[in-house]
Each structure stands twice: as C-alpha cells, then as structure tokens.
Amino acid sequence: xxxxxxxxxxxxxxxxxxxxxxxxxxxxxxxxxxxxxxxxxxxxxxxxxxxxxxxxxxxxxxxxxxxxxxxxxxxxxxxxxxxxxxxxxxxxxxxxxxxxxxxxxxxxxxxxxxxxxxxxxxxxxxxxxxxxxxxxxxxxxxxxxxxxxxxxxxxxxxxxxxxxxxxxxxxxxxxxxxxxxxxxxxxxxxxxxxxxxxxxxxxxxxxxxxxxxxxxxxxxxxxxxxxxxxxxxxxxxxxxxxxxxxxxxxxxxxxxxxxxxxxxxxxxxxxxxxxxxxxxxxxxxxxxxxxxxxxxxxxxxxxxxxxxxxxxxxxxxxxxxxxxxxxxxxxxxxxxxxxxxxxxxxxxxxxxxxxxxxxxxxxxxxxxxxxxxxxxxxxxxxxxxxxxxxxxxxx
Length: 395
Ligand SMILES: Nc1ncnc2c1ncn2[C@@H]1O[C@H](COP(=O)(O)OP(=O)(O)OP(=O)(O)O)[C@@H](O)[C@H]1O
Ligand SMILES: [Mg+2]
Prior knowledge:
single chain, about 400 residues, ABC transporter transmembrane region fold, Rossmann fold, 2 domains, 12 strands, about 55% helix, elongated, binds adenosine-5'-triphosphate, binds magnesium ion
C-alpha cells in the first residue's frame, strides 16, 4: 500500500503538465486520498492489534514475576527453607531474560513480515535473466555497415500466436541511405530493435558486415550501431557532457563537426546562454523537442558508428532543417549506413531504397519514383501528405 502511494506520487510529479492541461488536479487528489485512506485503515488495524498486544505482554510479564516472588517466598518461609533467596533471585533473572527475548522475537516477526514483500520484489528483479545470449569473448570486428535480413519472423512473446514481423527480406549495402515507412503500429521500431539485438528474431537470419549478428559480442555490435529513438533522452548535465556521452574521448573539433552535421551548432552557440556549457535539466526538458532531437543525432554521430538508425528523429524538425541534416549526412558521411524511419514521405523520399512496411510485412522496396509507380498505398500516402503539406504552408 505504501508502494501504491509512492507510485501515485511519482506518476503525478512526472505527469504534472498533463494533469494541469487536462484540469485533472481534483481527480488526482481523490486518487491519492483513496490510496492514503487504504494505507491509514490498514495501519490503524495493525497498530490497534499492536497497542493491545503490548500491554497484554507487559501484564503477563509482571504477573509471572509476582508469581515467582510470591511462590518463591512461600517456599523460603517453610521451616526447612525448601529454596534459598539467591535461588529465587537467579530464577527471576533467567525468566525475565526469557520473557524479554520472546517480546523482541515478536517485534522481529513483524519486521520480517513487512520486509518479505520487498524481498520478493527485489529478488524478482535480481533473478530476471536476459534472453539475449552474449558471445562476450568473440573477437569478431564489425567492419562495415552491410545489413541483411533473410526470412526473418519475430513475435514479442514466444507464446503469442501472431508474428509482429513476418517474412522480412532485404539487403542494405554499406553507406546506403535507407528509408523505412509504414503506418503507426506496422512494426518499424520492432524491425530496427532486432538489428541492435534488443530482441532476437524468432526465425531467420540477420547479418551485419556479412556475419551473423549473434557472432559478435554485444559490446562490439552496439558500439558499431547508433540509434536515436522515438523519444530521445538527454541527461542532467551540460550540453557538452551530453554530447560526449556518445564518446567520452571525442575532441572539441569532432563535437563541433557532429553538431554541424546535425544542425545544432548554431543554436548551441547563439541561443543557449552558456553555449556548450549550458546546463540541461533532467530528461532534456529545458530544450525544445526539435533541439533535443538534433542534439541526440549529434550524440549518436559522435559514437562513430558504422550504422546510424534514426527512428522518427525528424518529427519535430521543420522541412528545411530536416533536408539540411539529411544532405549533411549524405555528403559528410558517405561510408555510414543511414536508416531513417518515418511516417513522413518527405523524410525518406530521397533515400537510395525505401522499405514499405504494412502490418509487419514488407509490401514493397524501391526508390521514391519506383514506388510512386508500383505501390498504390505509397502513392496514396504521398498524395495525401502533399495536400496536407500545401495546406500547412498556406496557413
Ligand atoms: N514491448 C512490446 N511488447 C509487446 N508488443 C509490443 C511491444 N512493442 C511493440 N509491440 C507491438 O508490436 C507492434 C509494432 O509496434 P512498433 O512499435 O514496432 O510499431 P511502429 O511501426 O514503430 O509504430 P509507430 O509508428 O507508432 O512508432 C504493435 O502492435 C505493438 O503493439
Ligand atoms: Mg515506432
């Protein structure tokens, strides 16, 4: 119950903006009050039992002592002195020690009862084992950014009936710029999480740099791949510390180069009060969504990866900045394999190859022009987005 109160408090603090925006303050207060009352009632019951048990215990203690002294005295007063005074004294001391131990034991029992719940939860976490088997002693080096998927199937829970990804086949050559497009829930993020081995495919083979990804150590594999996810996070610290999180040994020139490619150099210098030394608040809430996305792209580049994966990382960028970042990636990093996931055709239309995903299946692969001709769904999305785009611009 205490755990429930902690959870509600934590949730309310994290979601404070949403609660205020939806005018749900009263609702949250009610929720907290309810949890608080439940804890109060249970605590009251426990404390009442405790409050009753304590005096009963004390009465039993003192009654025992009085009985010992009384009956000991009666025996001592008998003409033949059935027992001696020091015997009574010794017996009394032993009994007092025994009673004190019993009282203490009951307190310990209560404490054990309380901590058992925590013990089970902590153990659950400590016992959790990753299903990903790391070939930690492998010396295989990830040489280039070739990627291939052959007959790959995947489901999140091995007991689930439905595959989230079905019969995925494609090849990416080192240095190519690949776009992945599909409706929300079509398994785009799931597909790229297999490349970095956050999950292992249920069936099929995935190779990078012409070797099975399971043959690399996880360290080597993940050092060679940079992912900037859908909700990228920054940490509390300076801008520079956050950028160097990608590579702590990066020189200032490398940092500036990565920032220029990701189009964040100008705003760091001109808009942030202290440039690279500006403090960023926890979660990166002190910079705008678009600034956070660009900083995260720069951080991903500083890792010097062979493969860069940008999962909806342009969603908060205007079209001009988006185009510049893509152009920089192409021109400055020709040997880097770039995989860009987006629901916007504008973000991927100039890719060397576009993979169209629908409900976990690849429906088509081709360039923008080829897909416009061959893929009805893609052509429809393009038409709709062009209408939406021109409406946005006229507004
Ligand atoms: N951790 C998970 N456990 C179980 N199912 C999941 C998990 N993550 C995603 N899914 C399911 O897998 C399917 C694909 O999800 P995914 O996040 O890959 O879609 P997406 O194409 O990236 O969507 P979006 O464009 O909204 O980001 C969805 O039906 C989703 O419910
Ligand atoms: Mg996604």
